[in-house]
Design goal:
With 294 residues, the chain is α/β, with parallel strands linked by helices. The protein contains 15 helices and 8 strands. The strands form 3 sheets. A 4-stranded mixed beta sheet has the order 4-3-2-5, sandwiched between helices. It has a two-stranded parallel ribbon with strand order 1-6. The radius of gyration is 19 Å and the shape is globular.
Length: 294
């Protein structure tokens, strides 16, 4: 364990502590949703008082545990999918207010050339650092041109997350630099910093097909979703749903490039590279923070 990681673990902020409790609640809700666990049951499972848990969870998600469960049910996911295809077919609207729309507009992206990907980012310097986020520990990675990687892990999983991400661009030079990545982390997870006039610069490094899929993901607004087949159709590859699924799973910019908004055709959450519990957490957090703001 390096010194900076040790500092992170020794100085877990309330947000980081909150997520661990929230994660356990989400897991319980996901496993026992048919039994509709009571607030008292959830509190007992997490070692919190019912009142304390209600306040903590609502502060974190903007929703009560019961409302959160409703936000990540299959029926709700199906409703999100209803206008997925039209959303992808249309250009993003300009001038709409609210953090839900701003989250889509404040990201400006560029793609590195296929040659850059083919040589596995040779000659590119990528700075990285671990930061506490609403969804556990976040690995933030950036080049001089902008954010290029965002991954998640739980305490103890830092080494595996770093190996996963650095393995995608093995010829790059990787430098641990918390000072360089901290401003990115602050902007990504704080809606107060989602401003269209001060966009977050994102650099996407992948194959031509992956880039097209990731650009399609950026067109899905918060509180909406799209099926893999709808995404495939939107990029002119209607028979490539399976390949689209692989590209979604390979997205190196979790949350910012919203791969969590890609769902199965039935509305099922399906897989998520950083864990289905985290996917539920992100979708529920968006529902609480951004609903009714578009």
């Amino acid at each position: 364990m390096n010194a900076q990681t040790a500092m992170l673990k020794a100085d877990v902020t309330p947000t980081g502590s909150d997520y661990e409790t929230v994660r356990r609640v989400i897991e319980t809700l996901s496993l026992d949703y048919q039994d509709q666990p009571s607030l008292e049951d959830l509190a007992a499972a997490t070692g919190e008082t019912p009142t304390g848990l209600q306040k903590l969870f609502t502060r974190w998600a903007g929703l009560s545990p019961k409302a959160f469960l409703q936000a990540v049910t299959l029926d709700h996911a199906r409703r999100l999918l209803e206008d997925g295809a039209p959303v992808l077919d249309a250009a993003l609207e300009v001038g709409l207010s609210g953090p839900g729309r701003l989250h889509d507009l404040f990201v400006t992206h560029e793609a590195m050339s296929p040659g850059d990907y083919k040589n596995r980012a040779a000659g590119l310097t990528i700075r990285h650092g671990f930061h506490v986020s609403p969804f556990g520990i976040a690995l933030v990675m950036a080049t001089d041109r902008g954010l290029c990687g965002l991954a998640f892990c739980d305490p103890g999983g830092e080494a595996a997350a770093l190996a996963d991400m650095t393995g995608r661009w093995p010829n790059a030079v990787f430098v641990e630099d918390l000072a360089a990545t901290a401003p990115h982390a602050a902007r990504i997870f704080d809606p107060a910093h989602w401003r269209a006039d001060q966009p977050l610069r994102v650099v996407m490094i992948g194959t031509d097909f992956q880039l097209r899929v990731w650009e399609a993901l950026l067109k899905i607004p918060a509180n909406h979703a799209a099926s893999y087949s709808a995404i495939a159709a939107s990029i002119g590859k209607p028979k490539a749903s399976r390949a689209v699924g692989a590209a979604v799973g390979a997205n190196p910019l979790s949350f910012v490039v919203p791969c969590h908004r890609a769902l199965g055709k039935s509305g099922a959450l399906t897989g998520y590279h950083w864990g289905l519990t985290r996917k539920r957490a992100i979708l529920g957090w968006e529902a609480g923070r951004l609903s009714g703001t578009r």
